């Protein structure tokens, strides 16, 4: 890696899981009314930001399969620059570890990290609420990553409250297929009338993922993975897929099952955390503002 890049500060962009996902209705504008439980994980991508004196905003290298104009990282940086009338530019480096189209928040988390980091590095001084409003224009999951806490969410995912959960370990497995979220939400037979629940009545066993059956029909590899994984631990698809997770009380049990994964699938073990690694990073840089 280039010495200049190595000298930059890397900002975490953590993964998330939807421990459950219910579709409780639909708004007049066509958006779906959701309830979900966002579990932030302690692993994810990383981004670094090389601030420049010109106004150019660019990626150090394009992400395979994603046009720059569609990349949420660049969209987030440009929206923030426009909102705050920023005269500086930035070259953004991405260390991509999370699978795309996996339902674990990769793109949304990247956008959130970009907003949080550049808010600091460009000295925008926006509040979390202001950053979240910008982030919501990029995707419903972006605000929860900005606030950086495991949360019970409603609406389109933008109304949320931090919650306390046991510190479980998760095996997250990618079956090697990509799922289009708009395509899944456009399906006529998608459940759209699940009864809302109160947070204090939440139990994993009595909830589900309303997208899971549709995805399994359209992507048999997801169904195959679920059937395999559920033999070892309580398992469910996250988001609109394609990743599936299994829940364990300790790290070793999760690693033991990871070691048994068939060669066609890839996975990783992560810990569920109450506070996002991005929050921790932000606290560090705020405590030492001269260290970017």
State the secondary-structure class: alpha+beta
Biggest sheet details:
10 strands, mixed
- Shape by Cα distribution: globular
Tally the helices.
10
Write the layout of secondary structure elements.
Elements: H1 3-7, E1 10-26, E2 32-52, E3 57-59, H2 72-84, E4 89-95, H3 106-121, H4 128-136, H5 142-147, E5 151-155, E6 159-162, E7 169-174, H6 181-185, H7 212-218, H8 220-229, E8 235-237, E9 244-248, H9 251-258, E10 266-273, H10 277-287
Parallel strand pairs: 3-4
Antiparallel strand pairs: 1-2, 2-4, 2-5, 2-10, 5-6, 7-9, 7-10, 8-9
Helix pairs in contact: 2-3, 3-4, 3-10, 7-8
Q: What's this model, at a glance?
A:
The chain is of the alpha+beta class. The chain is built from 10 helices and 10 strands.
Description:
The protein is an alpha+beta fold and 292 residues long. It has one domain: Ribosomal Protein S5, domain 2 (2-Layer Sandwich), CATH 3.30.230.10. The protein has ten helices and ten strands. Strands 1, 2, 3, 4, 5, 6, 7, 8, 9 and 10 form a ten-stranded mixed β-sheet that branches. Helix 3 packs parallel to helix 10 and helix 7 crosses helix 8. It is globular. The mean pLDDT is 94.
């Amino acid at each position: 890696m280039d010495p200049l890049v190595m000298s930059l500060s890397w900002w975490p962009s953590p993964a998330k899981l939807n421990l459950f996902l219910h579709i409780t209705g639909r708004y007049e504008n066509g958006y779906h009314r959701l309830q979900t439980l966002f579990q932030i994980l302690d692993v994810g991508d990383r981004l670094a930001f090389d601030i420049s004196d010109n106004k150019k905003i660019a990626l150090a290298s394009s992400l395979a399969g994603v046009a720059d104009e569609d990349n949420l990282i660049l969209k987030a940086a440009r929206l923030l620059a426009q909102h705050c009338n920023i005269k500086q530019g930035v070259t953004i480096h991405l260390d991509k570890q999370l699978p795309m189209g996996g339902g674990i928040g990769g793109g949304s988390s990247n956008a959130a990290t970009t907003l949080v980091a550049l808010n600091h590095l460009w000295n925008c001084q926006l509040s979390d609420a202001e950053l979240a409003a910008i982030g919501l224009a990029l995707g419903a999951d972006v605000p929860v990553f900005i606030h950086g806490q495991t949360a019970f969410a409603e609406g389109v995912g933008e109304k949320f409250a931090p919650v306390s959960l046991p510190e479980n370990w998760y095996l997250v497995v990618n079956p090697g297929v990509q799922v289009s979220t708009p395509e899944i939400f456009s399906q006529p037979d998608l459940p759209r009338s699940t009864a809302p629940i109160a947070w204090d009545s939440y139990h994993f066993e009595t909830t589900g993922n309303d997208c899971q059956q549709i995805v399994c029909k359209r992507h048999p590899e997801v169904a195959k993975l679920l059937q395999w994984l559920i033999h070892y631990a309580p398992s469910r698809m996250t988001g609109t897929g394609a990743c599936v997770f299994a829940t364990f009380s300790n790290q070793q049990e999760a690693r033991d099952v990871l070691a048994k994964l068939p060669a066609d699938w890839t996975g990783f073990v992560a810990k569920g955390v109450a506070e996002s690694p991005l929050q921790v990073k932000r606290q560090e840089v705020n405590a030492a503002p001269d260290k970017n």
